[in-house]
Design goal:
The structure is a single chain. The protein is built from 14 helices and four strands. Helix 3 runs antiparallel to helix 4, helix 4 packs parallel to helix 6 and helix 9 runs parallel beside helix 12. It has a two-stranded antiparallel sheet with strand order 1-2. A two-stranded antiparallel sheet has the order 3-4. It is an all-alpha fold and about 450 residues long.
C-alpha cells in the first residue's frame, strides 16, 4: 500500500484538479506542485509545520515572479529589479529561481538529516528533468542566469528575518486563570513556535497590523454579562460538535465529520492546489500565474505571522482546556466534561484567533481578486481517510460556488474538529480578508 507521503507526492506532482479534468500546466504551476512535493519529502508536510511551508512557497514564487518580470516587465518587482534579455527562456528562469530558493531554504533546524536529503533530492530531480526538456543555447543559459539572480535577491532579503527561532518551547509559561492558555491535555507539554509572530512579514507593515480586539470574557461579572453568555454559547457549540465521539458524545453529522477532516490538511497545501485548478480552468499565462501564486503565498505567509502574533499576545485557552475545567471558570452557564477530547489532537498553540480561518480567508481574497467573486470549483483533500484522498479512485470532492464559500467552510471545520471557539474563527476570517486585501494592494502591482 502506498504511504501517505507517496500518495501526496503523486497528487501534487500530477497537479490534480480533483475532478476538473487534466490540469494544463506551465512552468509556474509545475514548480508550485514541485515545491509542494519537496516540502513533503523534506518532512515539512504533513509534519505540522505550515509556518515554514508558507514562507518557503512565498520566497519561491516571489523569485519566479521577479525572474519573469526581468524578461518582460508586467508588474512591480519585489526583490529583484534587474533586466534580462527578451530572448531569455521564461521556463528556464522559473525553474532556476524556484530551484535555488528551495535548495537554500529546505535545511530547517530540527528536521532530520534524511528528510533534508530527500527534499533536496526531489528538487534536484525535478530541476534536472525540467532543464533536460529545454534545448541548450543562449536562451536557456540567460533564463537560468536571471532565475538565479532573482533567487539570490529574495534569499538575501529574507536572511535574518526571524524564522530561525526554535519551533518548540517546553518551558513556555502556562496560565492558571480562566481563559489563559496552557499546555494541551493529552499531548506533549510544549508551545509551538511562540516567536513566529516576530518573523518579518512579506507585505504587512508589522505582524500586529489588523490585530483583533480581546477574545470574549470567560467569567461573568457585572461588566461582561453579554460576553460571558456568548462565550458559554461558543463553548457549548464546540463541546457538542467537536468531540472525538469516544470521550464524549458528538452531535456532528456524517457530512460535518467529513468537513472537519477534509480541511485538516495544511492550508498552504490545500489552497495552492485550489489555485492550480482555478488557473487551469482560466488558462492563465505564465506571467499571470507568477503574480497569482506570489500574491497567494505572500498572503498566506503573512497570515501565519500575523495570527501567531495574536495567539501569543492574548494566549487564550483552547476548547479542550476550557471544557475540562468549566466548573471553575467563573461562568454559571458552562459545565465541565473532564474527559472531553477533540476529534483530532488539538495543536499546541493558543486558540485566538484561528490561523486556519485566517489562511482560508486570505487565500480566498487573493483568488477572488484574480478570478472574480463567482468561481465554482471542486477540490479534494489529503487529510481524509485512505481511499478518499486526492489521487484515490474514490476521492471525495467538495464543491463550492465561490472561494469565499470554501473559506467559510474551512473556518467551520475548526469548530467541528474541536480546535477553536466560534469567536476565534469569525475573527480569523475577518483578519484573513484584511491580510489578503493588503497583499493585493501593496505588492506586485501591475505596470
Amino acid at each position: 500500500m502506498l504511504s501517505y507521503r507517496t500518495l501526496l507526492c503523486v497528487a501534487l506532482a500530477a497537479g490534480l484538479a480533483c475532478g476538473a479534468g487534466a490540469v494544463r500546466a506551465d512552468a509556474v504551476t509545475d514548480w508550485n506542485a514541485n515545491a509542494a512535493a519537496a516540502a513533503v519529502a523534506a518532512c515539512i508536510v504533513p509534519g505540522e509545520n505550515p509556518l515554514h511551508e508558507s514562507r518557503l512557497y512565498a520566497m519561491a514564487h516571489l523569485a519566479a515572479h521577479d525572474a519573469l518580470n526581468a524578461i518582460h516587465r508586467k508588474a512591480r518587482p519585489y526583490a529583484y529589479s534587474g533586466r534580462a534579455s527578451a530572448v531569455a527562456s521564461p521556463e528556464a528562469a522559473v525553474a532556476a529561481a524556484v530551484h535555488d530558493v528551495l535548495i537554500s531554504q529546505i535545511p530547517l533546524s530540527g528536521v532530520p538529516a534524511e528528510c533534508v536529503a530527500a527534499g533536496k533530492a526531489r528538487v534536484e530531480a525535478d530541476y534536472a528533468k525540467a532543464l533536460a526538456e529545454m534545448p541548450d543555447g543562449t536562451a536557456k543559459a540567460q533564463g537560468m542566469a536571471v532565475g538565479q539572480a532573482a533567487a539570490g535577491a529574495i534569499i538575501a532579503l529574507r536572511a535574518n528575518d526571524g524564522s530561525d527561532r526554535p519551533l518548540v518551547d517546553a518551558q513556555f509559561p502556562q496560565g492558571t486563570e480562566p481563559g489563559q492558555w496552557r499546555f494541551t491535555p493529552g499531548s506533549p507539554p510544549i508551545a509551538f513556535a511562540p516567536d513566529w509572530g516576530r518573523v518579518k512579514p512579506f507585505a504587512l507593515r508589522e505582524a500586529t497590523q489588523f490585530m483583533p480586539g480581546s477574545p470574549l470574557k470567560v467569567s461573568c461579572d457585572s461588566a461582561a454579562q453579554g460576553e460571558c453568555l456568548k462565550y458559554a454559547t461558543d463553548l457549548e457549540e464546540v463541546r457538542r460538535l467537536g468531540s472525538d465521539g469516544v470521550s464524549a458524545p458528538s452531535a456532528r453529522t456524517t457530512v460535518q465529520t467529513e468537513i472537519a477532516l477534509f480541511w485538516l490538511e495544511s492550508s498552504p497545501t490545500a489552497w495552492n492546489r485550489i489555485a492550480r485548478g482555478a488557473s487551469a480552468s482560466r488558462r492563465l499565462d505564465l506571467w499571470h500565474n507568477a503574480r497569482l501564486f506570489a500574491l497567494l503565498n505572500v498572503a498566506q505567509a503573512d497570515g501565519y505571522i500575523a495570527s501567531w502574533a495574536t495567539k501569543y499576545h492574548y494566549r487564550f485557552w483552547r476548547p479542550i482546556t476550557a471544557i475540562r475545567t468549566a466548573d471553575n471558570d467563573g461562568n454559571p452557564h458552562t459545565a465541565s466534561d473532564a474527559a472531553w477530547m477533540s476529534l483530532r489532537p488539538t495543536p499546541p498553540v493558543p486558540d485566538y484567533e484561528s490561523a486556519h480561518a485566517v489562511e482560508g480567508a486570505a487565500a480566498a481574497e487573493v483568488l477572488r481578486h484574480v478570478f472574480g467573486p463567482h468561481h465554482p470549483f471542486e477540490t479534494c483533500s489529503m487529510s481524509l481517510p485512505a481511499g478518499s484522498r486526492c489521487g484515490d479512485g474514490n476521492a471525495v470532492l467538495r464543491k463550492f460556488h465561490s472561494f469565499d464559500d470554501a473559506a467559510a467552510e474551512n473556518g467551520d471545520s475548526r469548530v467541528l474538529i474541536g480546535f477553536h471557539f466560534r469567536d476565534a474563527v469569525n475573527k480569523g476570517l475577518k483578519r484573513g480578508r484584511l491580510v489578503g486585501h493588503w497583499a493585493i494592494e501593496q505588492v506586485l502591482q501591475p505596470q
